[in-house]
Amino acid sequence: MGIGKRLKCNILLVCISLLLISYEGVAQKFYLKAGGGYKLQAGKTRFIDADPNGLTSIVPSLDININSSGLATVEDISGTFGGGLEIDLTGGYIINNYLAVELGIVYLKGDEKTIGKYQDAISSEEATGYLNGVLLSPSLVIDPGFSGVNPYVRAGLVLTATGKLYVDTSVDVPGGGGPGTDIRVAAQTVVEPNFSIGYAGAIGALFPINEKISLFGELEFRNFTIDAKEGEIEEFSTVAISGGTSNPVPGQQLENLPVSSKQFIFSDSFQASMITEPPTNEPRTVPVQYVNAGSMGLNFGVHLKF
């Protein structure tokens, strides 16, 4: 082999070596976290109005019970939709020994919460809701860089990626269809969110197993309110129950509801005529509502360095 060819080979080998060293150095700065946990509701507020049509006697965040003497017992049931099981996958990049940035993808399967209840001598009514969705969580992580157990503080944002709020409403009227015939109304409303931003923070620690793998545990707090965009009653039925059988009540099914009674657009500013009735073949615009998804709870998982 000639001197020129040998020189080119040596230069090529040096370049490849430098690239491998550079890649290894950069790769070692990346890490991946996978885990999950359970969140409790935090920062309770009043729930949304699940019945903009006024079809029920339910008042949001109140449990109203009226006895046979006409005396009402009223209890507050405010809360949030942030509680439930979570699974998360997070990618991180180490800036230096004390600082890192992360981007987490969080799937929340929310607990079902009672929004409102009403009961009197004639009927029993209840509305419940739960939130299922995916959140994005960009964060900044600060730690002291200990070689053993390494505590850290994480602070950042929470962003809506995708998800929906499901609200189930039921009304039972014993004898509502005459002696021996009960009436039951069941509905499900689905609320879709606008893009919303909240805040999250955590205190945790890494527990090393070897140079590459660690376990982590953290206590996380999330302050997050979701702006409702639009809602729709996707299920609605009225049945008469008699002798163990149920039959749909004609004219009181989903297909009988006009568009304005089952599709809603939430807005913080709109105009409405006080003289003429709004068109029934278009979605109805209603005042904006906010879904509180605040939570606090524990996360556990595995931390893997590359």
UniProtKB/TrEMBL annotation:
InterPro entries: OMP/PagP_B-barrel (IPR011250). Gene3D superfamilies: 2.40.160.20. It comes from the Bacteria. SUPFAM superfamilies: OMPA-like (SSF56925). This is Outer membrane protein beta-barrel domain-containing protein. It comes from Agaribacillus aureus.
